Amino acid sequence: MTITLSFKKKLDRHNRDSIRYYVVHSDNSGELKRNYINTGIKVLVKDVDSRNWRVKATASSQKELNVALSKAKENIDTALTRFEISQFTYEQVLAFLRGEVAYDSVDSYIDSVIKESRSSATYQDYKNTLNAFKHHLNIDKSTRVLFREFSSYVLLDKFKRNALNKGLAGTSINSYFNKIRAVLNDAHDKGYIYEKFTLKRGLKVTAKPSKPIQSITSEEFEEAIGKVSSIYDAQALALYLLMFGLRGMYLTDITALKDAEFKHDDFDKKDTYLNIFNDGHKYIIHRRVKTRNRMNDDLVIRLDSMIPLLINITKKLFRITHKGRGLISENKLALFDYDLNDTKLHKNLWDVYQKRIRKVLGFSFKTARKTYNTFATELEVSNTIRDILLGHAPQSINEKHYTNRRTITLSEKVQQSHTEILEDFDFENLSMMLYVKMMSYLSDKEKVIILRMLDSEFKKLKVDKLNN
In which band, very low, low, confident or very high, does the pLDDT at 96 lie, cut at 50, 70 and 90? Predict the structure, then answer.
């Protein structure tokens, strides 16, 4: 590569010519590339000694122009040096000479290109991966990581060993490696680094035998209700029961209920499939956070009396423990109202309940979904119906291309299976037992309101059961 200064040979109305960088480079295929890049310096040609690119002492603004030319020559030296030691690609040289960010560090690349081209959640994931890389290699947070360091086998191997020694799970380390590869290959595709990154064999942590799938029984949940000793214990169990009752939602799904659509006899009557839900029941249409950008179907969940009651009384407890924080949703069928992209807030809020549920129940929140699926399996619910219940995309080629999920018969089976799963888990009785515990933390005035609601809802329940 050669970089020189040259005149544009096109005068402006003041008879000045522009000085440009002239970049010549032959790539690996032998193709010769030429680029002209404007330096922003304009001079009278007669005032410049082009042998050493200095403005003559007799010229006006001689001092300022020579400072600018010195900076331009310094830029040439910097660009060539970084190119020769493989810190800059050809594209980065051009970007540098244009005065643009050359993205010579992973930090600047993630905070600019990745941030602008990815969702905020993905950007934060990549940012956290870079922070983990620094943390496990004892690199100061303010130190910028070069691309060659981020892709170094020696450093990545050291990162893995240090992370394992500190107790980080192998699955987490492998996840970090996948994100490191994604960042590096994105930079390669956009021309900021030379080589496509390949994760060398031996870096990923060998998967251990999968752990047994954990699920709970209704008896275990009933026992946990008896162990409640604080308002936080009661809230944790209420959240777990809500996750189960809403077809195995996760923490983010419970938070995202604020965005769910509530329907009650107002589905599109022109849509033959949707019209079948105009049956007098209340529904929410919810899209799982984890798969919202995929081809998965929306969840259409019928809300019988217990779910709205559970949300209502749980929210009253949250108004006590989270008073003044501005986190509680005004939506009747939602608990929280905050931005899920605020990962710090989300983590701090849920960490308390993650610990409580393990203490009082002995299992994590994730087992609510596994328990729901296990009960569906025990009831011999078909794979297709279970996938629809859980919001899974079609699994087989046959289902993807040949099975119409939007039929009246399938919909009826989905709602029937959901009802049977709740009944088999004894959802109604467990909810009532938990309500009693939860009400002990409410004021007398709120207890009266809840008791009236319970009385009203149970009258409706009896009528519904008689009609069925």
Answer: confident
Q: Which residues contact 401 (CB under 8 A, 6 or more apart)?
A: none
If you ran DSSP here, which 8-state letter would residue 146 be given?
Answer: B
Mean pLDDT, the chain, integer: 87
How does pLDDT run across 415-458, given as a tens digit for each residue?
A: 999 999 999 999 999 999 999 899 888 888 888 877 777 666 55
Report pLDDT for 46: 92
Q: Is the pLDDT of residue 354 over 90?
A: yes
CA–CA distance, 404 with 414 (Å, rounded to integer): 14
Beta strands 48-49 and 32-43 are unpaired
Residue 449 CB neighbours (<10 A): 14
| CA-based radius of gyration for the chain | 32
Among 293, 89, 76, 326, CA closest to 194: 89
d(CA 189, CA 388): 38
Alpha carbon of residue 467 to chain centroid: 45
Q: What is the pLDDT of residue 192?
A: 72
Give how far Cα 282 sits from Cα of 106, 278, 300, 312, 358, Å: 50, 9, 10, 15, 33
Residue 462 above 50 pLDDT?
no
Instruction: Band the pLDDT of 299: cuts 50, 70, 90.
Output: confident
Interval 187-239: pLDDT, tens: 888 877 767 889 888 898 886 666 788 999 999 999 999 999 999 999 999 99
DSSP string, 311-375: HHHHHHHHHHHTTTSS-B-SSTT-SB-S-TT-HHHHHHHHHHHHHHHHHHTSS-TTHHHHHHHHH
CA torsion sign for 468, 454, 277, 239 is: negative
Residues in CB range of 281: below 8 A, 6 or more apart:
264, 302, 303, 304
Structure tokens of 299? 């969840």
Burial (Cβ within 10 Å: 0-12, 13-18, ≥19) of residue 168: middle
Contacts from 332-339 at CB under 8 Å and sequence distance 24+?
332/262, 332/308, 333/257, 333/260, 333/262, 333/284, 333/303, 333/308, 334/257, 334/258, 334/260, 335/254, 335/255, 335/257, 335/311, 336/254, 336/255, 336/257, 336/258, 337/258, 338/255
Instruction: Name the β-bridge partners of 37.
Output: 21
Residues 6+ apart with CB under 8 A from 134: 140, 141, 143, 145
Instruction: Go through the chain and tell me how many residues it has.
Output: 468
Joined together, the tokens standing for residue 301 give 């969940």
State whether residue 24 is helix, strand or coil. strand
